[in-house]
Write a structure and sequence with these properties.
With about 90 residues, the protein is of the alpha+beta class. Helices cover about 30% and strands about 30% of the residues. It is built from 2 helices and 5 strands, in the order βαββαββ. Helix 1 packs antiparallel against helix 2. About 20% of the residues are buried.
Length: about 90
């Protein structure tokens, strides 16, 4: 099972991303949070589609987080990747 959460600024990209999720069996939990409970093949296809078709379209303020509940692994895209980095202030 995957939990996918996103914050995408561009309306067209956001709509296409949400449509891609629902086509792959995702169930909307909240406005921008989906649960995908499907076969491993479908889950892998979803990851590949996100990486190959959408990751390059994400802008600086966009965030997509894919939480794999089976392996407890996160995959982040866009602005979400910066939240795990240390911040140094001078």
């Amino acid at each position: 099972m995957l939990i996918v959460s996103y914050d995408i600024q561009n309306d067209r990209t956001r709509a296409r991303f949400a449509k891609m999720l629902t086509k792959n069996g995702a169930i909307r939990l909240q406005y921008s949070v989906y649960e995908v409970n499907n076969t491993d093949r479908i889950l892998n296809n979803l990851r590949i589609l996100t990486e190959e078709q959408f990751a390059k379209k994400f802008e600086g303020g966009d965030s997509v987080v894919i939480f794999d509940a089976a392996t407890i692994k996160l995959k982040k895209y866009g602005n979400a990747i910066h939240r795990d980095e240390d911040v140094v202030y001078f």
